[in-house]
Write a structure and sequence with these properties.
Keywords: Leucine-rich repeat, Plant defense, Repeat. The protein contains 22 helices and 48 strands. By secondary structure, the chain is α/β, with parallel strands linked by helices.
Length: about 1050
Amino acid sequence: MGKKFLIVLDDIWNDNYVDWDNLRTPFGVGDKGSKIIVTTRHESVASIMRSVPTHYLGQISDAASWSLFEKHAFGNENPDAHPNKKVIGKKIVEKCKGLPLAIKILGGQLRTKLDAKEWYDIFKSNIWEIPNDKILPALRLSYHHLPAHLKRCFAYCSIFPKDYTFKKEKLVLLWMAEGFVQELKSGKRMEEVGDEYFRELSSRSFFQQSSGDKSGFVMHDLINDLAQFVSGEFCYMLEGNKSHQISGKVRHFSFFMEDYDSYKKLGPFCEIKCLRTFLPFMPLLGYSTPQLTNKVLHDLLMTLSCLRVLSLSHYGNITELPNSIENLKQLRYLDLSQTSIKRLPEVICTLCNLQTLILSNCGLTLLPTNIGRLTNLRHLDISGTKLKEMPIQMNGLKGLRTLTTFVVGKHDGLRVGELREFRHLQGKLSILKLQNVVNPMDAWEANLKEKEHLNELHLEWGFETNDSHNERDVLDKLRPSTNLQKVTVKCYGGTSFPIWLGDGSFSNITVLYLEGCMHCLSLPPLGQLPSLVELSIKRINLVERVGLEFYGNGCTSIRPFQKLKTLGFAKMPEWEEWSFCGVEGEIFPSLEVLSIQDCPKLKGDLPNHLPFLKELIISECYRLEAWIPKDATSISTLKLKGCKEVVLSTIADRTSLESLRLLEFHDVRMLHGLSSLKDLKMVECSTSLLLFPSMLLSLEIDSCFTQASFPEGMLQCCTHLQRLSIWSCPRLKSFSRGGLPTTLKTLSIGGCEKLELVLPEAEETHSYYASLETLSLISSCESLKSFPLGLFPKLSFLNVSDCKNLESLCISEEGLHNYHTSLNNLIIISCPKFVSFPKGGLPTPNLTSFYVSNCKNLRSLPESMHTLFPSLQHLTLLKCPELESFPEGCLPANLIRLKVRFCEKLTACQTDWGLHTLASLQEFEIEGCKEVDSFPEKWLLPSALTSLEIYSLPNLKHLDKRGFQHLTSLKKLRIWNCPELQSFPEEGLPASLSLLDISGCPLLEQCCQREKGEGWPKIAHIPCIVINRNLIS
């Protein structure tokens, strides 16, 4: 957006320069004065990232240390009221040596110690004197004084990777499965006891709430170190290249998943007979679908009979579970979510100790017939599955605490009334296919009213409803407990809602969604829900009027919608009137977001008192002529589409407005008074504007202007503009005579074929583009034949795509002597006449990425790339058939990744590439050349190469042993769509190879058949072998 920013990257551990350089690039568009602060415990990270001297954090002061300790140890009490504790506390703080985490944790620990003697014991503990550079004594002390049951639970948390965000509910279920949590004689459920354990550890600062996920928790790295220290050899977290020196004492094993998890990686853990936990984690940036080799799955189920926790979640190649699952008699926790399993074997019903079964978002269509035999099952998650009904015997699962989904049967499955058997349900319950309820009394028998531990209820019918009266009775008799916090009613077919939906006794409901209730004629009295914060009403097709009935039919006991912050109406085709008559007091006094979309008949006014409104969205309400409320002085974001101009006219003096989206307006004007507007987007609008607001930072214009140029001065008044996007304005020929604001940093132009860039006659003259850092020209500027790079001294990103007449990039003779130090990313795509770069080369010493695609007449790359592109790391050449060779002097020495695809002439001259001299080259891809029958040629590739990918070489018959024999670092080899390739070199493939991926090579695939193919001995040593996208080893 081009705004000034302060970004704090806390606790960075990645010391890969490429990753940091990629992350840093987008921040280049920030305003002057923008800062990035990085905190790290690793000197190597600081050396890569810093542009100013490193600042080493010291200890906090004595006064600050005591203040922090006082807060956590004494709470709201005055320390002077406990003089003995205060004296001891001061001495303990001294021992913490100004380290905030240690002070915080010990303070929380001491808060539960009421006797000063207990404080003194901690002060005099020998643990302060035990040397250990990794674990702070104060942290060891905090663990030492935990009760035994909390010690076990905390140590177990060493299975979590550092920086991993975990859910309280999942951790409690894992603790239960491992036997760390027992039901108390007091009658407390295991889940409640586990929650108490969690709260105790959290109150002592062993866990802290995640900053990125309010429902998640993390452990500080030092706390994670402590957990690993105290768990000793019993817990093992496998990550990266960690040594496989595995103790036979390991009981709890976790690891990061990879695209292909092989037997070599996981096999050793299948030999630990007493292993209790097998728990994979998806990487933080994992987007692929991992696969697990069948041998690991086989061995897990055959040999690890002591397993209590087994997760196979996210392994997409698992389509069925072998019958050998019955061997895991001790299993308490089984997670098969996000797999391709469609049905479970009946033998799973013999796992009599199973407590938790997670099947969410897998391909499941049917539950086992005898699932009712799992009498200890407490948590069953089947959300996101395609189950058609619930098996009859399921009513035997009387101990269920979690049942995410109940599908009402039509013929043989459970009736909705069977829900009465599940008396202990908690959390969320979705009841689907309610159209199958024949007798409304069956809904009454479900006894939802008594299920007081449910906090979220989702009720859904199918679209094939044809009995409105019956459905009204069903919903009425499904009246739930008043403890609910969130309710969704979807595809309900009744003509009216029951009384309970809007009853003020439901004082805990904060979120309510009504969707697809096609036959309802009016809305329920939702204004009487005193705690309602978010309300969404969508596709209620027959409602014509929203009025007094919505607020409470004149009920004065509760003022309507006092706490509502978000209100949305959408797709209500018959809604004509929104009335506020007869309502006493203020309506919606707390509303912050109001959205009305696709209500084409709605007329009249909006609520007239919205003092806290921040965001207003009105879309496709063609008859709405409402004035935006005058007292909505806090509104900062406004999105309008397809509304009457009178709506727009009411915003002329909205000084608080910062973001405005306008779509489908016929005459946009009077925006210059929006003195705080920073972000403006106009789509399919005609305008008679003469001036834009002067404080604009970002302006996007799409399919708007029919004129040949902007009105004089329209852009020049935007003295702060940093980002400008112009799309699909085919008649636009030029900007106004004054050019563009000199503050502009990002310019994107697309679909403006006739537009001509304003180009000063010489580079030494004043440039309109002096501040420009990012430029994209897409299907635009047909008159542009030569792009003058010298006019853009600060440009860091250049993308020129589909510019039909562009022939070259040019730099004046003077410019050749001035290095363009800012440019780090250059993209040229689909420019059919593009033939050349500047003579003498392109002096861009900081260019890191260079991408050229579909330039059919390009014959050569820039000269002297090896000297003028010293920072180049990524080079992609795609569909440049006339490109004949790399420039003399070879490619830049720091190149890491090279892709050559469908460049026939270039690929035919492999011997001239000189890639063997590139010591930094790690990844190479080649695709699409009919001339290649043998690859790679001797010494074509450097020995440091780690990844080689070969695609679509239709005449490739041989893999040259001379080209492979020195690739001693190669880890990944992918060969796709090479139908003539028959075998591997006689000497085999490099011993370093960890992944072989073959697809679309029928002859080679036959050669690679496990144990049978002629080539199998040559590849048997490779940990991961993938054939046609299936992991076979």
